[in-house]
Structure formats: C-alpha cells, structure tokens
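Researcher: Before we compare anything, I want clean individual predictions. No alignment, no superposition, just each chain on its own. First chain goes here; please echo the sequence and then give the structure tokens.
Model: Echoing the first chain and its structure:
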Amino acid sequence: MFELRPILSALMRSKVSLVLIGLQIALTLAIVCNSLFIISERAALMDRPSGINEADTFTIGSIGFGADFDLRASMAEDLAMLRGLPGIVDAAPINSLPLSDGGWSQGASLNKEQKTPTAPTAMYFIDEHGLNTLGARLVAGRNFRSDEIGSRTRQSQGWPPGVILSKPLAEKLWPGADPIGKSFYLDTEAAPSTVIGIVAPLQSPWVHNKRIIDYSTVVPEMIGDGRFTRYVLRAEPGRRDAMMKLAEAKLAELNPDRIVRDAKSVEKIRADSYAEDRAMMIILGVVIASLLIITALGIVGMASFWVTQRTKQIGTRRALGATRGAILRHFLAENFVITSFGLVAGTLLAYGFNAWLIQNYETARMPWYYVPAGCVSLWVLGQMAVLGPARRASRVAPAMATRSV
C-alpha cells in the first residue's frame, strides 16, 4: 500500500510534467477508444452479406454504336448465347448490382395519401433468370414467370403488378406480418404492386447509405431503350475468371457493332466499394499504435528523468531502511496516480468526442464498455512503461545519500 499525500507532494514539484503526461494520456484514451469503435463499425459494415453469390458471379457491359443497332434484339441474342456457354450456370440482364455504388431508387409507400415514403428502396430490373443468376435465396413466395417480364423505357409509367422484396424491406413495411399478397406503392399516382416473393437480405448498391442498405425491390422488367445494357453471369465454381474472358470474347464476336467493356467480378466490385474503408481502418490502426507508443515513451522519459533527479533522495530513503521493493512500489504508485488523473479527463473527452461525431457525422453511439476497457489497457501500459525506470530506482545504493557531501 502507498500513502497518497507524499506522492502528490512529490508530483506537485513537477507540475508541468504532470499536466503534459496527464493530457497525453487523456488524448490517447479519447482518440484510441473512438478510433477502435470506428474500426469496428467499418469492419461490421464490410462483413455484411450482399445476399448474392459473390465468388462465382461477374458482370459485363455492352454498348452499341452501329446505326442499325437494336438493343432488344441484341439482348435476346446475347442471352441465348451466354446461357448456352459451357461453364456458365445462368445469365440475366440487370441494371445494377449490390455493392456497385450506382443504380435506381424509389420510395415505398403503404397508401396513396403518404407524403413521405415508408422506406426507400433500391430497384433491380431482372428477368426470370435473375435470382438464379445472382444466387439470391427466395425464402417465401415465388419467382417471376417468363410471361411476367416486361420492358421499361423512358416513357414507362407505373410499376409491374407483382414484385419481389428483400426480407428487411418487407419487415419494415409490415412488421411481424406475412408480406406475401400485400400491396404497396412505388408511385402513389399509379396502381399498387403486390408482393409475390421475398428474397433473403439483398443489399442495395449504396454500401454507405444506412437508410437503404438492406432495402431492395426486384422488378420483372428489362431496360428496353438506349444502347447500353449490363449482363450478370454466374459461372460454375472455380471457373469465374476463365468464363469472364470467354464471355467477353464471345459477345464481341457475336456483334461487332458494339463495345464490350467493364467485365468485373463481384468480389472486385466489393473490394472497390470498400477501398476507402480499408484505407481508413489502416490509417486509424497506425494512429492507435503510434499514440500508444508515444504515450509509453513519454511515461518512460518522465519516470527516467525523475529517477535521475531524485537519486540522492532515493539513496536517503534506502539509508533510512526503505527496501528495494518499497522504492519500486512508490514509482509504480506514482505513475498509477498520474495515469488515473489523465484517464478521468480522458473519459470525459472520449464521450464528448463521440457526441461530436454523432452530431456531425451521424455515427452510432459508442458502447459504454469501450472507455473502461481503454482505461484498463492504459493503466497496464503505464505500469509496464514505468517498470524499467522504477527498477533502476530500486537499485540505487544507500551510499548515494552521502556521495555529494
């Protein structure tokens, strides 16, 4: 055990060092706790399942430039060829993909009188092969039939009578109820659409938009005007890369009046979508490691300076009967007090910093246990950092008390 009054009295003789080390510990606690929370948030976001087969799926774009280019005829010809390729499980036209960061969104409303939609939703336009191609899992209801597939152009009004929803969107619209057969509005000025199927969580293209990330609507339509179309293909396991090259070559060979481009695997799309998040996690990890090292070095430097400054005093205490263990415990206790003062200030600073992040960047509230865990970690770090100088102090000989006399 140690007496607090002698320790505080000794610390008051070096107020500047006490304030600087305490402030350093406080800042370290605040930054480390919030940085770790941000890293955990980003890691959880990156681990969210997209709802599709990412390992075997890829996408290819086609844009026609010939004067006689017919998009609908080209799509029919392309799909027949792609679905017949050995090594291709299925193929479908699609306007966008989960994780792709671009697409079409609508508001989903439960009645015509709503001024604000109940939920936003991403829109995926596919045919009856779309769900199988994506590897999406239908958990209720049924898939589209071939006779239900329509065409959407710039002049199209309203929405198809039957659509498929992602499970989170259905739960948002009708909490606790069976959504199959229920109607809702994608356009309050048009006829409602009826839910014919529910697909397991299907992410939207916008991975950083928390309001819409799991809300998706699958529509039985194909984009029928313009000159660009996007195909999604699923290869047999282990053959994706070879099928990407083959499909690209076959499409170019089938119709020379167009450009085939943007062949990309869904895994690459995911990597591109989260590239900034990974970079941020790496940067924050480096910041955390740097702060902990600098804080530890600061404690070592301060303790080493105090041991050098108090050599004669330590020798006097040894001459009066203080054991090496007592000297060691004194410096450990002294550092514990300094660290505790810094952690009290750091606790307030950590929660304040988190409140600022919530207000300005819409982050979530940091769980309460981050700060206590951070305090324990910094206490341990502080004790380990001061252990070397404290052991050096404990080895000061009693004769040092009279050496300068």
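Researcher: Okay. Second chain, same rules.
Model: Second chain and its structure:
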Amino acid sequence: MNKCLQLILSFAVLLPLLTGCWDRQELNELGIMLGLGVDKDGDMIKVSAQVVVPSEVSSKSGGGKGTPVTQYQASAPTLFEAIQKLTESSPRRIFMAHIRILVYGEEYARKVGIYDVTEALMREPTVRPDYYVMVARNTTASKVLDVMTPLENLPAEKMFNSLDVSTKTWSPTTTVTGDQLMEYILSPGIQPVITGVEVVGNPEKSGNQENIATIKAPARLNSTGLSVFRGDKLIGWLTEDESKGYNYIRNNVVSTISHLPCRKDGYVTFKALRTTTKRSAKVVAGHPVINIKMKNVSSIGAVECRIKIGSMEVLKQLERDSEERLVNLMQTSVKSVQRKFHVDIFGFGQEVYHADPKFFKKVEKDWDHYLEDLDVDYKVNVQIKRVGTLDDSFRDQIRE
C-alpha cells in the first residue's frame, strides 16, 4: 500500500513538469514582426506588419539577394482581427513579441484616435510594452514601414535605434514607449506628446534594394517635430524650437548642441553636458503658479567670432545669454501651446495636484481653461565648465 501511494504521489509531482512545452512555438513557423503600422481604411483599421525574412538576415544562408524584411497588410474592424487576417497572405503566423516600433498614420491619429490600439496591445500578453511609438507625418504608417534603410538592414530596428540615439543627443526629439503612452492618456493633468517621422525624398524607390545601393539614399526616414494630442486624438505639431522647450521643461534633455549669436558677427556653439529641470507648483489665493528651475552645464564647442573666450567676463556674459535663450525657448513653447492647442502637455496639472490635491480636484474638469492664464516662473542657471583645447580664437592671426 505504501509503495502504491508513493507511486501515485510521484506521478502527481512529475506530471505537471511534463506540460512545459504544451504552448511551444517553432521558430520556422513564425513570422517575426518588428514594425507595426496602423492606418485608417474607410471605417476599418488597416494594419501593416514589417516582418523579418530569415533567409536574408541569416549569415549561414548568405542572404543579400532580396530585402531583409517584407510587409503584409490587412484591414478589419478591429486591430487583432486585422493582424490575424494577415495570414491570408503570410505563410507564417505573425509573432508580436519583438515589436520595436509602432507607427500611427496621421489621418488615423487625428480622426480615430490611438486609445483602442494602445489598449489592445497593452492587454495582449505576448506584446512587450517597451516598443517606441511614432506618428507618420503627412503620410501613412504603411509608407513609413516601406522604406529600406542603410547601416541597419532592418528598418524598424533603424527607427528604434535612430530615435533612441537622437533623444540622447538632440533636444527636439523624445521617446515614448507603449506603457508610457497609456499612462499619459489616462493620467489627469498631462496630455500625450509623440515624436513624428516622415519620408524624405523619392518614396517610389523607398522599398527597393536600390534605395540602399547608392551613397545618398533616394528615400529616407527623418524624425520631425513632436505631435500634440488631446486625449487620444492628434490636434497639431510643435515646431523644432517649441519641441526643444517642451523637452527642457519635461527634463528629457540628456545632451544636445545649440548656438548663440555673438555680440559681434558669428556664433558660439555650446555642447550641453548635463541638464536637470525640476518642476513644482503652489496655489496662491486660488491661483496656481508653476516654478521651473533648470541647471545646465555646458562646454564651448566652437567660436566663430572675435571674442576672448579666455576672459572670465566674456564667459559670464555667455552664461547670461545662454540662460536668456533657454528661458525664451521654454516660454515660447508654453505660450504657443496655450494659444494654439489649449492642452497641458507639460504635466503642470500633475504638479498642482501634488501641491494641493483638493484644489486640483475642484478645477480638474476646467484645467485647460486655467492653463491659458497659468503663471509660470522660470529660473535657469548655466555654467560653462570647459572651453575645449583652445582658449581664444586665432582668427585674428590669419594672414591675408
């Protein structure tokens, strides 16, 4: 009896371990999607899937005879119906665990809104929310995903890496992941902002191998400005300077390059080494006030005018000029958003909530009205720590 009981207990312990491969998926049966595009197709949603061609990216097979990715398209009333419908043309089931880029067509983002797709992808357990989200400016998502790119032979990977690098080195761009986007849509006191992407050049050659066969590609992808949303619908675009001001306020700037006009002719170029921005709020006599404090550490990148960089007085003047420029960038961005869009993309409402939750709850429904006359105080401290390997410019020593 004891042996029989031991045998039964052994089976009870071992049998669950034998089910570990019940949901296995063979790699040669999957189409790995790296880029997902969403466009409007009448009353339906049009899905464009950028899928890897294994034989073209495998080092063992040699590759190089065709494109490293292919694109499948399908339309249906809902997102996952359209994705499932891709199997009408795809010989493999679409695998979504490795999505790098989600691109919304501008028309879809304006007229339909991005919530339903964002929510569906967040609900799907096979999709990781660390993909970057972009908006196709003046074009469709399918055309963006149809562009072959040099250096990175997988276009979706190129878009992901390019945006990641640009965000760290160029202040007008920023990254938004799937989970961050959902948070922006649902959180009170802030509205979503997403980087745009456009097709530059000749789109007719964008999907051909010849697009990467020349030194200068006939068609290429460029990040361009930040798109502004009210709720889940696109309402407009920020200019480059407005995008810079937004990123400075949101503490998104890691490093960047900027310039100032000299008191005389020419420019001085600055390299931002570190930038930190802190936002806070207070309610004074029933009126919210936002305080923005920024600290910027920069170095001199280039001097294209006749000023004495070795002089402490000149450096102090450059610091003051740089502080004025940064304040002007932030002011321009805030005033433009207040005037044109009437939505809070900076998260000022969140700061007011943290400072006085009861007050914000009273004005939450009319917060956009409060935003139009919101008082914002800017304090910027710029320190120039380095001047490069030269002190004063040797322009005056050039012989005619």
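Researcher: What stands out in the second chain?
Model: The CA atoms of residues 54 and 68 lie 8 Å apart. Additionally, The two ends are 109 Å apart (CA to CA).
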